[in-house]
Amino acid sequence: MLDKLALTIVIIGAVNWGLVGLFEIDAVAFLFGGQTAIGSRIVYTLVAIAGLWCVSMLFSEPSRRAAR
């Protein structure tokens, strides 16, 4: 369950970075009142933590991933 949640958060972060790269639109900052707003900082931190969690998925055994 935690793997799926982390992956979902990473995907949201990736979509946000895609919007920043293609259209200079930061959806997180737009929704939470700017890049330095506490809500934005929390979301950015959650994306970073989820990304680090997904690194462990990258190096885990395929049978271990299936069991999760």
TrEMBL record:
Membrane-crossing segments per the record: 7-32, 38-59
Key words, A-Z: Membrane, Transmembrane, Transmembrane helix
Pfam families for this protein: DUF378
Domain of life of the native organism: Bacteria
Keyword Transmembrane helix listed: yes
KW Ribosomal protein (keyword) present: no
Name assigned to this protein: DUF378 domain-containing protein
